[in-house]
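Sequence in, structure out.
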Amino acid sequence: MTETLHIIGGGMAGSEAAWQAANMGVNVVIHEMRPKVETFAHRTGHLAEMVCSNSFRSDDDEQNAVGLLHWEMRAANGLIMAMADKHRLPAGGALAVDRDPFAESVTEALTAHPNISVEYDEITELPEDGQWIIATGPLTSAGLGAAIQAETGADALAFFDAIAPIVYAESINMDVAWLQSRYDKGDTEEERKAYLNCPMTYEQYEAFIDALETADKTEFHEGETAGYFDGCLPIEVMAERGRDTLRFGPMKPVGLTNAHDPDNKPYAVVQLRRDNALGTLYNIVGFQTKMKYGAQTEVLRMIPGLEDASFARLGGIHRNTFINSPTLLDNQMRLKSKPHIRFAGQITGVEGYVESAAMGLLAGRLAAAEILGTPMETAPANSAMGALVHHITGGAEAKTFQPMNVNFGLFHPVEGFKGGRRGRKDRYKAYTDRAKIDWQDWLNAQS
């Protein structure tokens, strides 16, 4: 009998970690506090529930680091990617999923696995023995968070994450909005029309920015500070950085032609992406917000095409907690002071569904190998997964450590390729080609 691996948290990271370890022959117990203990962000008790966007971002495995991470997870028989592919929605070059069927499928696969069991309980103390992975994500419970803080002797780092609103498709005015992916990107007609676009004139944009600036917003509790992650800024915070910030960000009008008025170029465009397979729900892309609910409906209905919008979910804001991984974890993702405990997912300081699941995949394999008495090296540094884990476990500057998406800036340079924008396409292809070889070699070494 091998030792059981215990995983705290059944989100993206915990689910993937359990799948990987179980497929290596290790018995796994997932400890998930939901639905017994609810959070304000989750709606169900499903494992791997998506609480913010429904997008896994770019699926381009030759020119994008996120797409490369997709490729590596697929090559490693990743559950999260398999279920994402199964429930894929049109999204141009991105991988968007039908969130509820996705989470249901992940839950069904895990609960049906003979080596996996799920216990719905809350763990509030750090275990003293056994093999554990803490994958509690950004919404780690107060009890466990306090236990982690007491053990590490350092304050937990935190930032604020905001949730984008979701609109009922039937309430969108299609006499104003039109379907088109930016630059008509996509291999099929459905992909090339994966987004709804709402155009704004100069006057409408300026009025919208004025409304954002004066809208009622969520108050922070005493002692909290708004240390936002730059990849998920509320629209109000972006607007505060300059009146044109949104127009050069999520509301950029480039690559789009108004089907109702093709001769007039919009000054700004709000995009909505399909959020379910039925096409009845659309989320407002990049519109994370901390406006109060009443203010949200008023301000968002100023967007042309959304004058009579009905909302399936309004935006929200919550505190995301993560540890200072560069000082606390070794390169096997183990807590240095308690090496029988690993950390995985967003709590380690990676940002995004894909990155969280990837760190779960790696932690699950490393833990299972240790249990089986066949320790393995961590992911190769030139792979996407390796670049990310090396960053959070030592490559980042501990004093300024902040959540990080995977990106080519984390990769070792490839010799012989010039820098700058002109050489970027060839350089990125060299990164991905090298990564795929190293990743496949790493996987082959385990078989």
